[in-house]
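Slides due. Your pick:
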Amino acid sequence: MNKELYEIWSEGFVTSFEHGGATFHGTEFGTSFKDACQNMADKDPEFKRYFNPDRMTFWGCRLFDNESDARSYFG
């Protein structure tokens, strides 16, 4: 299978005390977006710590392969 280069973004968030915009985590190759996220987790301990591959989230925020979609939720 051919690997593609994916951007990895997490959506912004709003809580009672904080607000955070979308976050760019970097780029990674994979056969799918999920595979690229797993590859990033294998290389980046900080990303791995908060990455949930079953839910495709980072610290509870959904992951996206582009900035526009990530920013459409809470900026």
